[in-house]
Structure formats: structure tokens, C-alpha cells
Amino acid sequence: MDLAAVAPEKKLDSTSIDEAIAHLQSEYPDAVSPDDREGYCGVIVERGRLVDIARVIRDDLGFDYLSSATAVDYLGAGDHLEMVYHTYRTSGGPALVFKAQTDRDNAEIPSLVSVWRGADFQEREAWDLMGIHFPGHPNLKRILMWEGFQGHPLRKDWREAYYEEDQKPFDSRWPGGHVHRAEEKNVFGKNVTYPPDIDLGRLMDTSEAAVYQSLGLGVDVERIMDKDGFETNELVVNMGPHHPSTHGVFRMVLTVDGETVTSLEPVMGYLHRNHEKIGERNTYLHNIPFTDRLDYISSMGNNHGYVLAVEQLMSLGRKYNPPTYRCEALRVMMVELSRIVNHLWAIGFWLNDIGAFFTPVLYFVQERERILDFFEAVAGSRMMCNYMRFGGLFGDLPDRLKSVSNLTNDRVRDYNTMQFLTEMINERIPRTIDELERLLTQNEIVIERSVGVGVLTREDAINYSAAGPLLRGSGVAYDIRRAEPYSIYPELDFDVAVEDEGDMYARYRVRVSELRESVRILKQILPRLEATAGESIWADGKPGAYAPRVPHGEAYGRVENGKGELGYYVVSAGGRGGSSNPWRYHVRAPSFINLTPMGIMSRGHKVADVVGILGSIDIVLGETDR
Amino acid sequence: MKLQELNQSEYPVPAELENNIAITSLSQLYNWGRRNSMWPMLFGLACCAIEMIATAASRFDFSRFGFEVMRATPRQADLMIVSGTVTKKMVVPIVRLYNQMPEPKYVLAMGACASGGGPFKEGYNVVSGMDKYLPVDVYVPGCPPTPQALLYGMIALQRKIDGQSIANGDDVPWYGVSSAEPTPVPVLGPDIIDPRQMDMIRRQAEAAAAELPSIGARDLPAATALVAASATADATAVADAPPVDGDALNFVLPTGAAPWAEAEDIREKRRLRALARKALRATRRAVAAEEE
User: Fold this and answer.
1) Looking at the domain B47-162, which fold is it?
2) Global ipTM
């Protein structure tokens, strides 16, 4: 990009959002119109010009980072499908949102993969779940469901087998009070009618070529597996979905030449548990425990992003009290503790992947257990904390920590809370990080295995929508806590960890620095907690409404989670007094989008390095597949 | 287990040989070996897998109870801990993995999802419980279960093994004469297909092609009533028949020991029930053949 050479253009890429929208409208008066629906923002782009305008947004206006691309089905509210794109500048600042609309029948929107490679998986997901066709997409196959699945399940008129009603609470349960098992009403547990020409023989075909073809890969398996000729020195290697290195049920299909990887295709969806469909049936509050189960290593961070999104929507209404200062401080403390848990876990299992089998992990799991003990004593559950609420929290810190479990080696039984926290933050965690560094940072084997392996360049990292340590390990100092601050992060003193090399080792170093920065933040939180002791965590002193009525509008709440940018796109249909259930609930999952550059990062490396590269991205399957 | 526990009290060991030899039954010896060397498969599905790892880690450490080491390959594993949500896409490899495990093999459903679908049950890609496809031995509730709960479940499985007998082929299928059939692997079509339902689907498709009224869920109550009627008839017929291999039972069951009498009763009932199930399956097959 020669932005520096063109003086007037340079000004454009630092304009405000309103100026950027005005610029787009003046340049493309017939293709760009402001989105004037109540509570919505951004522009609606005529889909025929979408690719051109996206290029202008990226190159001229400087919104070089495509954070999220997702589809919404407006059945009964315009009867169209809509793609929503959130773009940001990597220098920081709010989003430029643009949308493209299409009919529900023959839905078609041009692909933006040529502009942002990061749109690749997200468009495949929109095709899979919403049935939008993307001309120009290099490999438009289903991504979460399997090829051959009937229908596009996130469409509003698609009903799952156990469908009862559109929205909870179901009448039969409340106020009806008739609990029944879903199987009793649907004996087969399915809602499909099999087509008369169903070819059961083909479905039963378990030959290797058929299996790979059903995965919808871009790999020409038949050519490579052709054993008749002698020129086939390439080999297809399947890893997963049951494989100890894939951190869960994830599958990679590699083409190797000798031992060198020539191409890699991630296959996912083995843990696709329909988070978004269930989320649209749920009430707003129902979704909080479900968010816990996205990135199940750091559930507090997931809660935070979701409550931020819904609070954004609630603030559009008349009656809304923002969370109190103590509440914000507690949220930040919990989130930073989760980040420590997440990074310890990530580093430990990455070491597992590069050959230090399970010994380092044990040290980190030990420290994690102490933090989980604290979570258990405060929120009631070790992993799935379900702690945050709209405008508040589940509860304040107790005076004394008493663990729910009755363990003899329990470290939090009947401790003074502040004393426990002070000790943990000032002594134990720093000690663990020191130990970790002493063992690993200058360790020759770690350096040999990780320096120069799995390189992602700065340009690729931005273009592939990488997030979190993957992005910052490639030299982009983009941390949402600084780029678009939320909660009380603006007043806290911390640095954005960044490394320039873009390899596995750089990502490790970013994680270690972030551990130290988290401790630094926690040390600043402690006096804030002491100063606000006794204050309420709720704005008016009593818990907020359990079932909030949310006004019409859209919101994108995003947080810097351990794995990267976690965003929630929530649309409320409004109605009289506000809606009680989200119309659309989409999770921008860092683990999912960070896998997009997996192929280019692995190319040219050995099979054993692929395992380490996957570990250095740090994915968690609950979030990848949702 | 100590030597004294392995020894069965009804066969007294002379005083000079005490603590040197033990007299016991073959079943008890088998079970003692198996329960104390259960190797789980290194196999995580979802959130519960994290708690499973925590259970394996130093604080809880299930090696203390004989779950010595987790093996990544099913060929070396005795226990499959289904730790997380079973999706339709994933159940295919899971069943295949189960088939690859050597017998004796056990399945532990960890958490709400693996036991019955859990919070995600209503999802379109979620199988409501592992027991829809595999025989589950122990269910551990929780979302996720704490490591303590998982340990309790694993110990419960050990207790279950203690009660098994090599003389009763219906109790534990792998001690039977013939080799066990592999569980049919589900197929991903328009939705997931259990191969055991293939016939039904084919007939439904044919009916749809011939524009006949479809034999689907609507006809099922009648069909179940038919099967249920024949089942009760079978059960009474089986109950009236004399037990087939009573001698084999006497082989392991010590006579005269009061606590065992109850167990024998239970086992006898279980055997009769298994026979009834077998007969039921046979009649079902016959009915199906007649219909065709």
C-alpha cells in the first residue's frame, strides 16, 4: 500500500466514523445508504458494489481489520438475509459497520475473501447455517455441519427436531408446569423426511476417498491416493478428530511430501452444539451460562463480552443503570485471573505438543487449581462460573472464602478473602511465572523447536483477521483493552505485549508478558477493591431485573479474551416494552477465526511442527465450533 | 487388595500357610485384576475433558485408584470416558473408537451432555446422551462434574466390576462363547442415521415414492403396542421354563454363604431378563420378516 505517497488519502484513514460514512456516501451515492433502522448503525451497501466498496474501506479509509462477518435472517421484518461486517483500524478506534442484503430465496452476496482472507471461514459458516451463497469464494463448503445435511439451521423458519416454540420460556413449562421429555413427542428424534431417491449405499461407503470427499476439502485425494502410478510421492495424512494433539475434537487433513507439509485443511464442527440457535430461543439471561461453555478455560471473560453487548442494547432504552465502580473492578479482576488461567493452560499444552509431555503442565495446572478454588468459593462453580449479570454480578466477594468442596488439601477453606487475594496476586502467581520463565524462556530445546516455526507475517495476520496473542506475536500492537477500551481499563496502567517475529516463540513470549501485565493490573485492582469495600455492586443497591426487556437495535460487544477478540453480535427485535429474547445472537469466536491462517503457517514445516503450531494458536473447541 | 480380602472365608487356609496363599474364585481374581488396572482412553470431547485432565493431574490423581495412565489409542484402553457433548458429527468416530477397544470395555458418561444431552439437548447437532448408541456403565452428573464426582463415578465402576461373573455370559457379554458383534456405526445422511433403522427408512422412502401414506412416527404407537404385547407373552414363557445352565452358576457361587444368596437371586433375575430380551429380539425379527 502506498498510502504514504498519496497525501490526501492519508488523511482519510484517520477520519471519524461519521466522516468515513459521509465519504462513502459522497463517493457512492447510489450504492451506499445509511442504516436508519432504530438502534442500528453503519451503512447498507448495495451488494453488486460490495467488493469495490470493501476495498475502499480497507485501503482508503484504513479499516484494515475485518473483525466479524455474520448473517442475520430478517424473516417477517423485511424478509431478507443480511451480512453484517464489522471492520476496525489496527491503530484503534470504533467500528465501521457495513451490511449487504439479499433475498431469502437464491440468497447471494459476493465473497469478500479477495479483500479480507479472514472472511473465509466466516462466509463458509454463513453458507452452512444461513444458506447464503458467496460467488467468488474459493472453497464454499459446509464448515460446521456435514455435507449432505438437510437445510440451513440458523434460518428462522428451520426447526430442530426437539422444537417446541420459538422462544423460551415454553408455555408447557411456565406457567403450564408440564415437564415432558422431548423424545416422547418425537419418536425418531429427527425432523427430516428422507427423500425417495436416498442412496443409502453411498452413505455407507467408508472408503478413504469417500470419507475425505465428504469433508469437503480442496484436496484432490483421489489423485494423491492413486496407487497405480509411481509418481505419487504425496501422501494424505489425517489427524483427528480423535488425536491427543488437537486439543479436543478437531481434525486436520494434511498433504505431505515426504515429511514436509504441502497443504493443510482444518476440519471442524465435531463440537458444534448449536450455541446460536439455542441462544436465539433463550432469554437474554439464559444465555449467560451458555457463554461459560464457549471457551471453557476462561468462562469469566466470556460472560464479560456478552453482558457488555446486552448492556449496550439496554442503554438504548429509557431505564438503564450502568454497573457501579466496584462491580467493574470485580469484573476486571475476574477476567484477568481467567486470562492467567488461560495462558498457563495454553503454554502448558503447547509444551505438551512440542514434546515436553505433561510434566510442565502439572506445575501450571496446580496454580490454576488455586485460582479455580477462588472462583468456586465466590461464584459456586470451579469452571462454569456464571458470574456476571446485566448491570452487575451474581454476588459480591464474601468476607471469608469457604470452598464448596470438602477437600482435605483444599487451600481456600476459611481464608480471609482480601488476604487470600493479596497473597495470591503478590506472591504465588508471580512466583509461578518466574518459575515458568526460568524453566522455559532460555530453554534450548524450546528455542530450537519454536524459533522460526509457524511464521505469520504482520500483513497476513491482519488480513486473516488473527486475534489475540497470534496477532500481537506478529508485531501488531492491537489489544482491545487499549484499542477500544471498555470497563475500567482506561484508568489502569499496563502495556500491550507485542513481539515482531511472528513465530511460535514470539507467541509464547507474548503470553508470558501478558501474564506479567495481568498481575500488574491485578495489583492495581486490589486497592480499588479495598477502597470500595462495602459499596453495592448494583447501581441502585438492589439486583437488576432478572429478565430484562431490551429495546430494538443491534450491538457488538467485544472483549480481549485470553485467546483473542471475543465478540458478541446481538440483535434485539424490540416490540412493546422491548424483547426478552435475542433475535440474532452471534459469537465471533477467536479460536475459530484464528484457524484461518493455519494452512499458510504450516506449509513447508514438518508434521511434528504442525502439532506445535496448532498449540501455539491456542484453540478451544467449544469456541471454535460453538 | 490385600491377600486376606482376596481369600474367600468359606475355604479356610491352614494357619501355617496364612498370608502366603489365598483360595478364591476365578471371577474374583479376574475382577480384582481388571478393576485395578483400568486404563482410560485419552479422549476429550468438550468442557468435561478439562475437568478430566484436572482429575488426572497431581491434585486429584486418579492413578491412585488404578486408572494408571491414559492411552491415546483405543486398542490399549479399557475405559472410555465420554467427557462432553456428543454431537451427531462426532458420534460416528466415537462408535468406531468403541468398536476398536478390546474387550472387556466400559463406558462412563461424564456430565449432563454425555448422560442425556444436557443443556444442549435441543440443539440440532446434539445426540441426547451417549446411551443412544453405546451401552453406558456409569453416569456421572454435573455440568461439568467436579473431579471428586468423576472419581466417585470411577470408583462406582470398580464396584460394578466386582459384581460381575465370568460364568454368566449374559451379564458380561465378553465372557460369552461367541465374539460380540461390533456396534453399528451411525451414518451421516440428511440427518444422522442409525443403521439399525435403515430398513425403516428404506420402507419410508419407498412409500413416499409410491405416494403411499408414510410409515413414520405417526404409525409407531401401533407398532410399539404390538411389540409390547409379544414381549409380555415371551417374558411369561421364559419365566415358566426351567433355568438352562444352573450347573454353571453353581460353579462359582459358593454355597451356604448368606450374603451371596441375594446376589445369586439378582443374577438369576438378570439372566432371565436377558433371555427374555433375546427372545424378544427374535420375535421382532420374525415379525419384520413376515411383513416383508
Assistant:
1) Rossmann fold (3.40.50)
2) 0.86
